[in-house]
From TrEMBL:
Keyword list, A-Z: NADP, Oxidoreductase
Record bears the keyword Oxidoreductase: yes
Pfam families: ADH_N, ADH_zinc_N_2
Domain Enoyl reductase (ER): 15-327
Name of the featured protein: Zinc-dependent alcohol dehydrogenase family protein
Keyword Lipid biosynthesis among record annotations: no
PANTHER family given in the database record: QUINONE OXIDOREDUCTASE PIG3 (PTHR48106:SF18), QUINONE OXIDOREDUCTASE PIG3-RELATED (PTHR48106)
Superkingdom, natural source: Bacteria
Length: 329
């Protein structure tokens, strides 16, 4: 272990990701007592990484830090009694720090993986699939047959929400922004697909409202559109808000016009940190089964070596590649 070096991407000041992420190499430090050491294999670049690096959460995150919320690796060292044998593949979650060759973390934050899941599948199994599954099975006041509306439905997590909702016997309505995305759902079970940029969008929402409305809305956009979606929600319905693609918060008039709505900000991190390890492991196992059965799927665009992190970042920012950008470590 002493002759190994640690290569990592590090952020020493907040700002645009392409400007502030630096690559450095240093001697591998001794492992702290009680920690496990994971040799990382893959990590991902997610919007949450880019937002964090920008400084959006600087009130609770300080520099310097190693980015990367999502990654997969194998145990190379763990304390006695941790039940993490050398070679055990794990998801080291609960903190950032996956954009490096070795991640030291507490054993309770290392979650095991089944043999039928490949590393490239496993690295995409946390942020989006866990969020989708938890919103439908923990946040939603679930009843079979509920009608739910999902905006930005053409996103990776939007499609996962629809697929999982189908297995739970829910009825999804998908909303997209462009006509070209309407055909993406030919193989999905949806009541309808609405184009929010289309001329008949208002009439389509009105038809939904007249036909009984929706029981719940899964919103990752925020902003003024929240008011539009609230109009089709049944009295006392749920509005589960988990993203801010518009860059604008839900406006105050949302609550003034619909005080009956049960509103929730869903954050994966808060749920994970509020549960005991066996509960989280069971949910991870559920996600793995969904991946195995083809219900949850993540398209992978390409992979870049960690030493080429700048190229990986450029690819992620360009938006030209369809699918996840992986960092191979």
């Amino acid at each position: 272990m002493k002759d190994k070096a640690l290569t990592r991407a590090i952020v020493r000041e907040f700002g645009p990701i392409q400007d502030v992420v630096q690559l450095e190499q240093l001697p591998l430090p001794p492992l702290a007592a009680g920690d496990a050491r994971v040799k990382m294999v893959y990590a991902t670049i997610n919007p949450s990484d880019i937002i964090t690096i920008s400084g959006a959460y600087r009130s609770r995150i300080s520099v310097p830090f190693v980015p990367g919320f999502e990654g997969v690796g194998a145990i190379i060292q763990a304390p006695d009694g941790a039940r993490l044998p050398v070679g055990q593949r794990v998801l080291p979650i609960g903190s950032m720090g996956n954009w490096q060759t070795f991640k030291d973390t507490r054993p309770e934050w290392c979650f095991t993986l089944p043999d039928f899941i490949s590393d490239r599948q496993a690295v995409n199994s946390y942020v989006n699939p866990m969020t989708a599954l938890l919103m439908l099975t923990e946040a939603l006041d679930f009843r079979p047959g509920q009608r739910i509306l999902i905006n930005a439905a053409n996103s990776a997590i939007g499609k996962m929400l629809i697929r999982i909702a189908n297995t739970l016997r829910l009825t999804p309505i998908a909303v997209v922004r462009k006509a070209e995305n309407l055909a993406l759902f030919d193989d999905f079970q949806v009541e309808s697909v609405l184009n929010s940029g289309g001329q008949d969008y208002s009439q389509a929402l009105e038809r939904i409202k007249r036909s009984g409305g929706v029981d719940a809305i899964f919103d990752c956009i925020g902003g003024e559109e929240s008011l539009t979606f609230a109009e089709v929600l049944i009295p006392g319905g749920q509005f589960i808000h988990y993203g801010l693609l518009s860059g604008k918060p839900v406006p105050p008039q949302f609550w003034r016009t619909r005080p009956d709505i049960r509103f929730m900000n869903f954050h994966l991190r808060q749920w994970i940190h509020s549960q005991e390890k066996p509960v989280v492991q069971r949910k991870i196992d559920e996600v793995m089964a969904l991946i195995r059965d083809g219900i949850v799927h993540t398209d992978i665009a390409t992979a870049f070596r960690l030493e080429n992190i700048a190229d990986a970042i450029d690819a992620a920012l360009s938006g030209e590649l369809k699918g996840k950008i992986l960092i191979e470590i």
